Amino acid sequence: MARFVTFRVITAVCLLTLLSLITFVVYATIPVEPAGFLVDLQHAKPSQIAAAHDALGLNHSVWYRYGDYLRRLAHGDFGTAWSSLGIGYDGQIHGAAVGHMVYEAAGVTGSIILGGAVLLVVIAVPLALVSARAPRSVLDRTVVAISLVGISTHPLVIGVVLRLMFGERWRWLPPTGYCNLTGPPALPDFRLANGAIPQGCGGLKEWTTHLILPWLTFALFFVALYMRMLRARLLETLHTHYVRTARAKGAGEFRVLGRHALPNVVAPMSIMLAMDAGTAIGISIYIESVYFLPGVGHLLLNALNGERGYDLPLILGVMFISATAIIALNALADVIARVIDPRITSISRSGAGGVRSGLA
Q1: Are 66 and 40 members of one domain?
Q2: Which residue of 11, 90, 203, 357 shows the fewest CB atoms closer than 10 Å?
Q3: Which residues have CB under 8 Å from 62's CB, separation 6+?
Q4: 80 and 109: one domain?
Q5: Are residue 155 and residue 297 in the same domain, yes or no?
Q6: Is residue 75 located within the same domain as residue 184?
Q7: Is 325 inside a domain boundary?
Q8: Is the Cα torsion angle 276, 193, 208, 143 positive or negative in sign?
Q9: Of 40, 59, 94, which marks where a domain is finished?
Q10: Residues 128 and 46 occupy one common structural domain
């Protein structure tokens, strides 16, 4: 296991370095003028643009700047967001630290993904049990048909419908905004759809009520896929010899499902959840756009708006944190697979398909 963990750590470092290099080179060579973050390009003099380049560290080659970025990154410094730069009362240029901005936003995105994943399990497992209990019945066909509709619907559409119905029409839940578990909202400069700045709020109740609709949007998008996977796994398990033996000994259906069938879906479901981390982060961008949540997606869209240029430090920070989370969760999926069932082929040696096929 130690050898396996060492291999995954080395692989992760290489992947992150390669991703950061590609991202840095691509956005650093796009023909835009980053000096627009500090000066008005339409009225600025050449000397002012040159001073802006010096302040942004653009007077060196791309490779020198990338090496400097790696040196700072090794000390935990993600740099300063160009879009936040401004001249303070002391005449010096100040800005927000990318690390702090990304960590704050990652808390929002993480809340969406973790809560949505829990709700996904709560919905998918009972549906799969009901469907597998009576295969090819009217109830089973209805559940499968509904799941097909769910998997075919874009999360943006799901989010808009839920927001319009439960948030704006019936006013059962807050349609937009985010509240921290404690303290003021993350990213206090974040504005809602109507341009208003959200008021300070906090506490478990307000945090939960503001995230119910995002969680439901997340869960409904994934529930069809997971329900169908769990149903297929349960149908396979219910026809095994040890389940037939348990039934022959007089075990009730509830005991058969709970003690024999359900534990067999824990491993594949856990692995799928970890492996879908990248998809989950991508889906969260749509969810944050619909409900105006100050998450990683909001940061990334602002960094890519291109009005004054691309905020390279912020783009790199979002990429690095997101890629780290995805790689770590995929490594966790590999560890879970090896611990629960040593017969499963390692993801690191055969790819994701090996795990999924080994569990099928």
Answers
A1: yes
A2: 90
A3: 24, 25, 28, 29
A4: no
A5: yes
A6: no
A7: no
A8: negative
A9: 94
A10: no
Q: Where does the pLDDT of residue 183 fall: very low under 50, low under 70, confident under 90, or very high at 90 and above?
A: low
Structure tokens at 110: 């993480």
Alpha helices in 134-240 (DSSP H): 138-152, 155-162, 204-238
Q: Choose among 58, 109, 30, 79: nearest CA to 306.
A: 30
Query: Which residue's structure tokens are 């509830």?
Result: 254
Q: Do residues 289 and 99 make contact, with C-beta atoms less than 8 angstroms apart?
A: no
312 part of a folded domain:
no
What is the distance, to the nearest Å, from the Cα of residue 210 to the centroid of all Cα atoms in its chain? 18
Cβ pair 294, 108 in contact under 8 A: yes
**Chain segment 144-165, per-residue pLDDT in tens:** 787 777 778 888 899 999 999 9
327 found inside a domain: no
Q: Is residue 289 part of a domain?
A: yes
3-class secondary structure per residue, 106-140: HHHHHHHHHHHHHHHHHHHHHHHHHHHHCCCCHHH
pLDDT digits (tens, 9 = 90+) for 194-228: 545 455 677 788 889 999 999 999 998 888 888 88
Share of residues in the chain with pLDDT > 90 (%): 19
Whether 149 and 289 map to the same domain: the answer is yes
Domain that includes residue 131, residue range: 99-306
Do 69 and 7 have their domain in common? Answer: yes
Q: Which of 165, 161, 177 is nearest to 209 (CA)?
A: 177
Return the structure tokens found at 192: 């809602």
Q: In terms of domains, do 213 and 295 share one?
A: yes
Give the list of residues 6+ apart from residue 94 with CB closer than 8 angstroms, or none: 85, 86, 87, 88
pTM: 0.81
Q: What are phi and psi of 156, to 5 degrees?
A: -65, -40
